[in-house]
């Protein structure tokens, strides 16, 4: 057996799955989900067509996996930004959360539109329950516990703030230039801070 074939077959399943997802993402963005074939996806990933079905049952299954990967990527950016602040800097943590979340959506606007707007999930549950809202809820509750701010219901506030941010960054063409993006990120940060009664720096 040629060495290169052996190498392909011994890739970890999660790596192979990720390669299929990446190939599908590029094709979906270029052609749309309906016009993309499974054979094109496997060709793009450099695997046999049957390999696709070891990881996914359909294109819809791939799309759902892309949604999950997108949201996890946004969360990873948020966690890194928040953890980069001092433990006692609750205002900074909240500002970092809002900025990192917005950047995550803006940087992958094409994929977000494809996976959540052009081919939306079956339900809208993700707008009230997802790992981003959960993380914000935990941050708000922790800050309230340290008297950094006063809120009656961290869960409600997390859903409210996330959906406000989501609605803003989901507008077509928003934040496309560096100056427009900087202005947008600052405006989102200001609204997050004001919502919790914190000084925004421009009050």
Automatic annotation (TrEMBL):
GO MF annotations, alphabetized: DNA-binding transcription factor activity; transcription cis-regulatory region binding
Domain of life of the source: Bacteria
Transmembrane segments: none
Domain HTH tetR-type: 14-74
DNA-binding region per UniProt: 37-56
Keywords, ordered alphabetically: Coiled coil, DNA-binding
InterPro entries according to UniProt: DNA-bd_HTH_TetR-type_CS, Homeodomain-like_sf, HTH-type_TetR-like_transc_reg, HTH_TetR
Protein name (record): TetR/AcrR family transcriptional regulator
Organism annotation: Rhizobium leguminosarum
